[in-house]
Amino acid sequence: MPELPEVEVVKKSLLSKIIKLKVKKVKVKNVNLRYKIDKKSINSLKNKKIISIKRISKYLLINFSNDITLISHLGMTGRFYIEEKKKILKSSFYYNNLTKLRKHDHVVFIFNNRLKIIYNDIRKFGFLMIAKTSKLKNYTSFIKLGPDPLKNKFNFKYFKEKSINKKIKIKDLLMNQSFVSGLGNIYVNEILFKSKINPYFLASNLKDVDIKKIVKYTKNILLKAIKHGGSSIKDFHSFDGAKGHYQEKFYVYGKTGLQCSSKDCKALISKVVISQRATFYCPNCQK
Ligand SMILES: [Zn+2]
């Protein structure tokens, strides 16, 4: 599932290709995504120009002229790709078989310069929705979101205030989108390893020095992941089909039974399940 870094990578690649373009036509091939696509409202994008592209947590917001925003969430396997003169730009795509790929094209945006942006989603947990740009603040999914981990608002003071009474496992707290938004299972495992905190540790018992470490490594790891194009696990590819490389930098995620990468540590990475999610950690470094 794409987490914050992957959505940021998609945002950046979209920005480089479609900013200021005008929509000529929208073709909806399948309305049945996580939420049913409202054909009439998505067609209102016709003749509208793209003004900016933003990210809130794992949501992508494409802002058009006339106070219209296209909200998109990639769900598990959603992706955008670009087509120019009937050719997919760059071909290092998940599928080698083009017919199989095309089956999952759900919405096609055709721009005035004939460039096409295609929303493709195998498992259809993603969605596309139209909203008024000026009313985005009231959008229910955004109201309950905690701060973006890359913003200044996610800092020691905020963390301490919010965690002081939380008698829950630190891993569960970091996964909670109303505490901090955009983190998912992969990056939380990596952050706790770098911070040397056991995933079972109770949030309310964290020392100041631990909180500082978690805040610092959250930002560090996310920025590094963005720099490497995100992590390509299972289905993630950026907009032009290129794979991310951050998975090559993982310390613990998916490394069960392998030797810990810390200097002088001979322990093996353990895998346990916390709140139904696979959790990887070093029992020696993260006591
Ligand atoms: Zn270790």
Profile the largest sheet: 5 strands, antiparallel
- Classified in CATH, the superfamily of the largest domain is MutM-like, N-terminal
CATH architecture of the largest domain: Alpha-Beta Barrel
Roughly how many Å is the radius of gyration? 20 Å
Total separate domains: 2
CATH topology of the largest domain: the name is: N-terminal domain of MutM-like DNA repair proteins
SSE order, one letter for each helix or strand = HEHEEEEEHEEEHHHHHEE
What's the β-strand tally?
Answer: 11
Q: How much helix, percentage-wise, in residues?
A: 25-40%
Anisotropy-based shape:
globular
Residue fraction in strands: 15-25%
Q: What is the number of helical segments per DSSP (H or I, 4+ residues)?
A: 8
Reading side by side through the largest sheet, how are the strands ordered? Answer: 1-7-8-5-6
Mean pLDDT: 91
Poorly predicted ranges (pLDDT <50, ≥5 residues)? 90-96
First CA to last CA: what distance?
28 Å
The distinct ligands, each listed once, are: zinc ion
Category from helices, strands and their pairing:
alpha+beta
Assign the CATH class of the largest domain: Alpha Beta
Describe what you observe in this structure.
With about 290 residues, the protein is an alpha+beta fold. The protein folds into 2 domains: about 5-145, MutM-like, N-terminal (N-terminal domain of MutM-like DNA repair proteins), CATH 3.20.190.10; about 155-280, Helicase, Ruva Protein, domain 3, CATH 1.10.8. It has 8 helices and 11 strands. A 5-stranded antiparallel sheet has the order 1-7-8-5-6. The protein has a 4-stranded antiparallel sheet with strand order 2-3-4-9, covered by helices on one side. Strands 10-11 form a two-stranded antiparallel ribbon. It starts with a helix and ends in a 6-residue tail after the last strand. Zinc ion binds near residues 262, 265, 267, 284 and 285.
